[in-house]
């Protein structure tokens, strides 16, 4: 028997119409070179409709890819809606990727046009002749006096908009139609493309409005510090438009002092960024009035307990950790404290906040043995690969043969993260699957071992990789960066670790290195270390 | 181009699994004859799985209708999930309908089994031999010593559950599969059946978790006073299970004093009921500790400004009005105050709260001229029929030829309500379309005219209906119930109204009546009045 409910499709046009009709007086503040630009959703909606006409007039295909190379701005938000609401596909290019990767993904997605912030022309323009499908480069003038190339492909955003009439968006019948794509920079091989649908984006936005998730409401002033080219700024832009919340966009001014000033000046209620951002911003918040602030959301990599506690002590607000990845739209868990912990001590709460939190509605999680795929219990002890499924979780990569490796036969995403899940549903990441060290049939968490090593007062940074061992299959190699001028020996390290980790985790091998190599987005690149020490064998 | 997101269907099984896994320690408190029964979601989930086995063992068809005739209880919540999660369809029978209507809808839906609270056997059992498709009557013993009939159709709920093993729920591939049905008692003809899908129910539940809607969270203790047989208790039961909120169920104890005691004793945070309930409960709340309470939700019919203000003055919390109907799952609007009114006066706020509020995400509304169907502006002045569309809005009635009258060609629900919508999206109901009086090509709102009449100090109740007029097509007839012992004349009434309504609204016809006839759910029955005065013609 079928339900008799409206076959109303879930599309971004609904979110757009909602803001245009219900929240015309709310809007977006964007930092530009000359100061703060303000626009209401009423004006924004008119401009977004004109932008759709511009896409038509540029001759972009009905489902053509519309690329952006831009900071967080109101104009970027116009593109976020004009592309999908006109049936096209938004493609946010990550400005921080290596040039070869940018060229690869623009070609792979078959981008037809790129919208570039003027301040980013210096990064973007040198690549343009390598992009085989891009016919137009539209420059969005943010007041930074980069030279605009005299080239037939180049046009000015505002000039085009001024000449266009506002479009009526077509009715999109199929909610599974693509709305946007974003490439994720794997640590091996080319980046892989994730394709969001209208349905997934609308549902993810609803998720962000849920109280126990990000709780975005009409009363909020939401500041995504996380870039709009990085996993959709965690969906906060679409969520704010849906809720009618004001948006505060930092534009190109991503320096800690500028962020701190904006938080106070714009009375931001919810701000979201990666740990590095919040580490930098904290000292700049001293003495500021942050009474409007209700949530500092942090994700992208694990949030150190010390950072959250430092915020709690100085700002009066601990960090709210969230977990997800490009493939999960991205929000899958949030670290809200359940009511059962109402009487927990500060220390217990700090420990709980250091976990990645519990799944939000419509997301399902499980952990599985990395070798056998067997599902593991939620006992807070068993470590397994974290797998996810739900309406905003990817089921495949775009035109990519590597999809089979990343999804299980029953359709779950293999996140590559290793986690425990407590009986009450708190996920705690302990490693990446490919970084686990398999020793004698058991798994050593490289992250936990690194954390133990970095607790040593003479050690600044450390990374652990597995190296081949005849008897145990693999053994850990500790790659260590000593504090300035210090020396560290293997014996001293083993002695320090003896009380901190199981005995069979103790490394027999130590390498002193100058620094831990990093990926383009600032994470430890163990791939580089593995290449560097490819010949190394474990000491018996 | 298609999105590459998981084809994960939106089903109630997800909500069920979520509570079972993440919120096993939270649960439901139910008032029964012997006191308060408490059950955790962990226990509830096990019982719900056993109940699915019971449905199998009773031989209920794979998509058979499972009827309930019951108060708000944890057992009723077991049925809310066991039926749809096993692929069947829950059918909540309204215990307050006239017997003929109950018989009609049970037959029309082809109910195979009815689960009856023991305390309701006195109402239900006299009908049983008229029900042509019902093979089983399962009695849920709530401790009220009604006689249980000695009949082969009758079995005891707990006995069946005790003998059953917990079922694994099947994977439901189609989110548009029917999950539940509920009949709406129109004022003309038989009740009409609305069929909810898994998708509509899941999305409506998400809607209830949104901050600017009901904002149900894990920290809540939710008390649906609105019955589970009345438009799904406004979806609060499924929403609470999804959020992991505790539920407080009043069972058969619906008296104001019992409700008030429960609100205090169970530290209820959110309570929901129709205006009549809250009128009765208010005096009982005097002197009680209601510090946990954050929202008193009210709907079903317009909330008088005076009632909301009385709550604000006595309890410190105005009433939160919501609007919807069985066909809208039911929540379509909520009366949250937008941030633009942060500086409004108490009077302005009271006036705003007397409106039905703004549409929640995924619901679209419009108003249309009742005669021409032309869409009308959102200017707070134009009065038109309120129409709705969205993923939890019905598109047809179940096996009913009257569907065509209630839905537009482009798929919108014709609510039959007449409303204005302000530029900022606040809906304000002014009448029912069928109660409008069409005079000289213009519409007179019967409700507004009634309110003006009832403001007269000598008048207790009044209802206005249209009667034929040769010149004006229709004119209003004022049907008036004077206060005890008072007399009211037409001249006196016209004089009183002259300053309160447009001149052409002034009635030329008055009927003094003993009381305004009511429907089975307590609303003014203008249908009865129209029948009573069918021969009446307007005075020139």
Automatic annotation (TrEMBL), chains A, B:
It holds the Pfam family AMP-binding_C. The keyword Transcription regulation does not apply. PROSITE patterns: AMP_BINDING. GO terms for molecular function: ligase activity, forming carbon-sulfur bonds. It comes from the Bacteria. Residues 29-398 form the AMP-dependent synthetase/ligase domain. Residues 448-523 form the AMP-binding enzyme C-terminal domain. Keywords: Ligase. InterPro entries: AMP-bd_C, AMP-bd_C_sf, AMP-binding_CS, AMP-dep_synth/lig_dom, ANL_N_sf, ATP-dep_AMP-bd_enzyme. The keyword Membrane does not apply. Gene3D superfamilies: 3.30.300.30, N-terminal domain of ligase-like. Belongs to the ATP-dependent AMP-binding enzyme family. NCBIfam families: PRK06187.1. PANTHER family: LONG-CHAIN-FATTY-ACID--COA LIGASE (PTHR43767), MEDIUM-CHAIN-FATTY-ACID--COA LIGASE (PTHR43767:SF11). This is Long-chain fatty acid--CoA ligase. It comes from Solirubrobacter phytolaccae.
